[in-house]
What we know:
This protein has 7 helices and no strands. It is globular. By secondary structure, the protein is mainly alpha-helical. α1 (2-20) packs antiparallel against α2 (22-44).
Amino acid sequence: MSSLLEFLLLAAFFLSYLWKGIYTATAVIMVGSVLVLATSWWRTRKVETLPLMVAVAALVFGGVTLLLHDPVYIKWKFSVVEWLLGLVFLGSRFVGGKPLIRRALEEKVQLPDPVWTRLNLMWGLFFLFLGTLNVYVIYAFSTDAWVRFKVWGVTGLLIAFAVLQSLYLARHMPKEDK
């Protein structure tokens, strides 16, 4: 459900950009992020960290974008969120004794300790890479190119990374008895 809402929010951002431009798309991402957070709370009766972080970043960076009429701030939101995610993944192994990816998936997936550590490291570095790549795109290309990168480029990179992760995990999954 959460992934579907995030996809719908991305689609709303893209369509509103094509329809009315970056400032309308910024307002859409601000309202949509709050709606995703409210939906998450409505489903679980608790405020989950990731939707909260995204909503706060959307409100802060989107608000500054609309106030100063400068799209660079909403473009930076993506990098800040990705870098925070990367740091949380990388730092999680030092807080609580288990990597974040293990805490999220160990009830469904059984893996050796070193594989959990590598998997967590890969996700952390991937998020840091995405944030840094976004900064490059911000300053090397137009706003139109940045929007297309954010919608199609990042989505493609996430899918490619998830497929590579699946192949890596398949090598380390316990064999089923026949």
